């Protein structure tokens, strides 16, 4: 996918990964060699993305490895190694299925779109210059070219400067440093070759950037639905809520609006998509044939399961996206 959009890593990319072990001179391999091999294959399948340590640790626990330092020292024969590497990759895929990761692949295509259209580039340069010219003097400093790239950001195909040191070299090469001042036309004239070289570098070697976006696909809800103990504990809390002659489902709705995140529901806040999701799911349930006046524990349990199952089904088909920075 080009840098105009986002890519969701949900484990499906790992289904066809080739895990045939290379033929080493020795008949066994260390755990460290095995993990390095598996993670290199995973990275190849995930557009060069390097997995977070927390995800790798969780996957190891899924396959029964609690001490990864000790595991790295172990030697495994080739038969056991093949089994472990397959199980580890499957565990990574399951972790991603439960908690998908969102990335942006910056390959220069979005930048090239601006550069190939004179009108689009002129508008971009004008807008950036206006944003940087906070004192409305018609002048900005030459080194503010760097700030203009930060203004463009990942959404417009620019890697974070902190993660892409090559960008500093490009700025230096094109003389985008110093305190002397530039007018708008001079700014645009300097910006263009900087963006062109950046687009060329990214086209040759794309950069993958992790996005601070949380996807809710109902996986946590499905785990809770399979946990009778946790459901029972939730019902106990529900029955302690102030009822004020509310129906069972209204009591559940009020509880979920306050505590839904702990059960795996997306945060309500002012998100219109999530508000609509609540209305659809609870609206359908409220139109059911269940006696809404009953407050018995089994009625709460039945109603809660029915509602959570509908949330899980909706989220599986239409996951929600939540910006973790907001």
Outline of the structure:
This protein has 326 residues and is mainly alpha-helical. Helix content is 55%, strand content 10%. The chain is flat.
What do you see in this structure?
The protein has 326 residues and is mainly alpha-helical.
Strand content: 5-15%
Distance between the termini: 26 Å
Q: What is the count of helical runs?
A: 14
Order of strands side by side in the largest beta sheet?
1-4-7
Secondary-structure map:
Layout (H helix, E strand, L loop, with lengths): L6 E3 L18 E3 H15 L7 H10 L5 H6 L1 E3 H21 L2 E6 L2 H8 L1 H15 L7 E2 L3 H8 L13 H8 L7 E2 L1 H21 L2 E4 L2 E4 L2 H7 L2 H12 L8 H12 L12 H15 L10 H21 L2 E4 L3
Antiparallel strand pairs: 1-4, 2-3, 4-7, 5-6, 8-9
Helix pairs in contact: 1-4, 2-4, 5-6, 5-9, 6-7, 6-9, 10-14, 11-14, 13-14
Considering the chains and any ligands shown, give keywords for the structure:
14 helices, three-stranded antiparallel sheet, mainly alpha, flat, 326 residues, single chain, 10% strand
């Amino acid at each position: 996918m080009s840098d105009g959009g986002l890519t969701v890593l949900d484990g499906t990319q790992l289904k066809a990964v080739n895990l045939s072990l290379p033929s080493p001179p020795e008949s066994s391999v260390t755990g460290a060699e095995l993990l390095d091999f598996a993670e290199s294959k995973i990275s190849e399948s995930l557009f060069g993305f390097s997995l977070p340590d927390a995800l790798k640790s969780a996957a190891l626990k899924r396959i029964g490895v609690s001490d990864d330092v000790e595991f790295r020292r172990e030697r495994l024969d080739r038969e056991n190694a093949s089994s472990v590497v397959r199980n580890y990759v499957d565990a990574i895929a399951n972790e991603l299925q439960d908690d998908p990761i969102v990335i942006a692949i910056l390959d220069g295509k979005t930048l090239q779109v601006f550069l190939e259209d004179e009108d689009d580039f002129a508008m971009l340069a004008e807008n950036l210059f206006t944003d940087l010219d906070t004192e409305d003097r018609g002048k900005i400093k030459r080194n503010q070219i760097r700030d203009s790239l930060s203004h463009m950001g990942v959404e417009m195909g620019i890697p974070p400067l902190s993660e892409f040191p090559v960008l500093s070299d490009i700025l230096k090469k094109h003389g985008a440093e110093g305190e002397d001042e530039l007018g708008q036309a001079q700014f645009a004239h300097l910006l263009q070759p900087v963006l062109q070289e950046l687009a060329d570098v990214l086209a040759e070697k794309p950069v993958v950037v992790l996005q601070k976006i949380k996807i809710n696909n109902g996986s946590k809800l499905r785990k809770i639905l399979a946990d009778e103990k946790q459901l029972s504990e939730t019902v106990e809390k529900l029955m302690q809520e102030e009822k004020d002659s509310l129906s069972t489902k209204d009591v559940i709705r009020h509880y979920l609006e306050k505590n839904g995140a702990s059960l795996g529901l997306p945060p309500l806040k002012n998100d219109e998509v999530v508000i609509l999701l609540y209305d659809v799911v609870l609206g359908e349930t409220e139109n059911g044939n269940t006696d809404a006046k009953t407050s018995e524990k089994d009625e709460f349990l039945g109603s809660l399961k029915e509602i959570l199952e509908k949330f899980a089904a909706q989220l599986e088909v239409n996951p929600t996206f939540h910006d973790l920075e907001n």
